[in-house]
UniProtKB/TrEMBL annotation:
<protein>
    <submittedName>
        <fullName>NUDIX hydrolase domain-like protein</fullName>
    </submittedName>
</protein>
<dbReference type="InterPro" id="IPR050241">
    <property type="entry name" value="NAD-cap_RNA_hydrolase_NudC"/>
</dbReference>
<dbReference type="InterPro" id="IPR015797">
    <property type="entry name" value="NUDIX_hydrolase-like_dom_sf"/>
</dbReference>
<keyword id="KW-0479">Metal-binding</keyword>
<dbReference type="Pfam" id="PF00293">
    <property type="entry name" value="NUDIX"/>
</dbReference>
<feature type="domain" description="Nudix hydrolase">
    <location>
        <begin position="45"/>
        <end position="210"/>
    </location>
</feature>
<keyword id="KW-0378">Hydrolase</keyword>
<keyword id="KW-0460">Magnesium</keyword>
<dbReference type="InterPro" id="IPR000086">
    <property type="entry name" value="NUDIX_hydrolase_dom"/>
</dbReference>
């Protein structure tokens, strides 16, 4: 059964929401289409398992997934995404599906096109001409932890069924990985990503153009936050 999503699309991105056969027909030079979704958080920086935020002037962080050690580029960090399938309703549906399959979060809105990339790969039986589109997305789960009024992410309940606000879960901790594809997730700052891109060192090492595209996502997020 096909997954169902209830996302909205910024008006200037409607061209990517065409039925997938029509979208592919407009770009016959490509054989494969790949989609990525960059997910950001503006919540206070709480280390996993802690209730005390770190001191930080900028709370914007991005969800990074660490590739499985048995996969290509083992241990590298990336945003969720992957190949769109021929039976996807649209390119954007393919992005939403990949995001859900890789981290268990549901896209609620496509905000901006962050970057595009393309490459050619020679295989024994075909020539792959791929085009990738990376989007800034918002997600349904992106709400604050439960409040007195019951808004936000549901808290864990005590044995008697009452809700203890001290047990409230952050939506950033609701990520569910597919262990065949990824072994861990973290929320990284712009500077943490930049170290890996500019020096090749640091914790969050990426591959191909993932790093520069993530930094472009941060640029857009900072621009939106300043408005």
């Amino acid at each position: 059964m096909a997954l169902k999503f209830n996302y909205t699309v910024a008006p200037h991105l409607e061209e990517f929401n065409l039925p997938f056969p029509a979208f592919r027909a407009k770009k016959p030079q490509y054989t494969h289409f790949i989609g990525g979704g960059l997910i950001f958080s503006r919540s206070p920086n709480l280390p996993r398992g802690s209730d005390r935020p770190l001191e930080d002037d900028n709370n914007i962080r991005i969800l990074l997934l660490q590739r499985a050690l048995h996969d290509a580029y083992p241990g590298a960090w990336e945003g969720p995404g992957g190949s769109c399938e021929y039976d996807d309703e649209s390119l954007l549906y393919g992005v939403a599906r990949e995001v859900f399959e890789e981290c268990g979060l549901r896209v609620s809105r496509f905000v901006e096109l962050v970057a595009t990339d393309e490459w050619v790969k020679l295989k024994p039986d075909e020539v792959v001409k791929a085009k990738k589109y990376t989007f800034l997305v918002e997600i349904e789960e992106g709400k604050p932890a439960v409040s007195v009024n019951g808004d936000g992410v549901p808290a864990d309940k005590l044995p008697d069924g009452t809700i203890d606000s001290g047990l409230a879960r952050r939506w950033e901790d609701l990520v569910k990985l597919d262990p065949e594809e990824h072994r861990d997730f973290e929320w990284a700052t712009e500077e943490e990503v930049r170290v890996g891109v500019e020096t090749g060192n640091g914790r969050y090492k990426s591959f191909a153009k993932h790093g520069p595209h993530i930094l472009e996502g941060f640029r857009i997020m900072n621009e939106l936050a300043a408005k």
